Amino acid sequence: MAVVVGGCVFWGGGLRAAALLFLFVVSSSLLSARHPDHPGFARDGRQVFANGGWAAAGALVIPHHVGLGWALLAGALATAQADTWASEIGAHAARPPRLITTGAAVAPGTSGAVSLLGTAGGAAGAAPIAALALALGTGPRVAAAGFTAGVLGRLADSLLGATLQARYRGRHCGAPGEGVVHCGVAADRAGGLRWLDNDGVNLAATSAGAPAPPPPPPRGCPRRRPPPPPPRRRPTHHPPPRPGRPPRPPGGAARSPSPRPRAGPHAPAPPSAGPAPPP
Fold first, then answer.
1. How many angstroms separate the CA atoms of 168 and 196, rounded?
2. φ/ψ (deg, to 5) at 108
3. Regarding predicted confidence, which is higher, 271 or 61?
4. How far apart are alpha carbons 159 and 169 in whole angstroms?
5. What residues form DSSP beta bridges with 105?
6. How does DSSP assign 22-76, residue by residue?
7. Which member of 106, 140, 209, 255 has the greatest number of CB atoms within 10 A?
8. In contact, 73 and 8? CB cutoff 8 Å
9. Rounded to the nearest 5°, which phi and psi values hold at 135?
C-alpha cells in the first residue's frame, strides 16, 4: 500500500508532492519511534491508507485541477501530521488531558483527550507542511488551506475519538487503550462502535481536512482584465474615374473647373482684333 500511495503522489504531483509526503513520513515516524508502544517506521496497509489515501487522491487531481489537487494533498498530509504530533507531544504534558466533549480530566492515552501542549503540537505539526508547500511554489492560498485543514482535522479526530471510536480498557491494569489487546491479553471494550478503530478515525479526520478548498482572493484586489482591442479602421476606397473626366488628385479634393466668361451688360468686352481696314 505504501508503494501505491507513493507512486500516485509522485505520478500526479511530481517531486514537489513527493517532498511533502517525505516530510510527513520522516517527521511522524521519528516521533512515533520514540514511544515504546508505537510501531515507529513499521506501518501496515490500513494505517498507510488512512493517513495517505486522500493525499494520493489529491495528487491524482493535480493534472486536471491544480488548485484543488494541491489543497487536497496539503490538507490531508497536514491533518495526518498534526494528529501524530499532537499525540506524541501531548503525552509529555505535565497536567492530565481533558475530554474534548465534557472537559473532564482523563488518563493520558484516552481517545478524545486533548491538552494545551498537544493542541499546540498539532498546530506545530501542520505548519511545516504548509510552509513547505509555500516554498515549493504552490501559492499562499494552498498553504493557508493546508494549515487550516490540519488544525480542523485534528479537532475532528479528537471529537470522533471521544464519541464514536471504540474504546478499550486493560483487563488487569485498567488503563485505557485503543487496541483489542492490552498488556498481552484481550482488553475489555469500554464504549464506542466496535468496528470504528483508530485507523478509521484517522481516515475520517483526513477526509474532513482534505476537502478544504483554498480561500478566495480578497475583494480589495480585483483581477486585472486585459485591455480591449483597438477599433478596426475601414479601408478608404476611391471609385474609379468616369470616362471623359480627369482623375481626382491624390489629396481627395476635386479639381476646380476653369472660369467661363459671364454674359450681360457688365460683361467685359471681348478683345478687339485690330483697326478696320480702309474702304
1. 12
2. -60, 140
3. 61
4. 19
5. 98
6. HHHHHHHHHHHHTSTTS-TT---HHHHHHHHHHHHHHHHHTTT-HHHHHHHHHHH
7. 209
8. no
9. -70, -30
pLDDT digits 0-9 by tens, 128-183: 999 999 999 888 988 998 899 899 989 999 999 888 888 887 777 767 766 677 67
Rounded Cα gap, residues 104 and 110, in angstroms: 12
Q: Indicate the average pLDDT of the chain.
A: 79
Q: What is the model's pTM?
A: 0.69
For 97, the grid coordinates are: 488531558
List the Cα angle 122/40/5 in 5-degree steps: 80
How far, in Å, CA of 130 to CA of 237, rounded? 65
List the one residue out of 48, 76, 218 whose CA is nearest residue 133. 76
User: CA-CA distance, 105 to 98, in Å (whole number)?
Assistant: 4
> How many angstroms from the chain centroid is the CA of residue 23?
19
Task: Give buried/exposed letters for 240-258 (b at 16+ CB in 10 A, else e).
Answer: eeeeeeeeeeeeeeeeeee
pLDDT over 90 percentage in the chain: 25
Give the integer Cα–Cα distance in Å for 55 and 75: 8
**DSSP codes of every residue in the chain:** -HHHHHHHHHHHHHHHHHHHHHHHHHHHHHHHHTSTTS-TT---HHHHHHHHHHHHHHHHHTTT-HHHHHHHHHHHHHHHHHHHHHHHHHTT-SSPPEETTT--B--TT-TTEE-HHHHHHHHHHHHHHHHHHHHTTS-HHHHHHHHHHHHHHHHHHHHHHHHTS-EEE-TTT--EESSSEETTEEPEEEES-TT--HHHHHHHHHHHHTT-PPPPPPTTSPPPPPPPPPPPPPPP-PPPPPTTSPPPPTTSPPPPPPP-PPPSTTSPPPPP--PPPP-
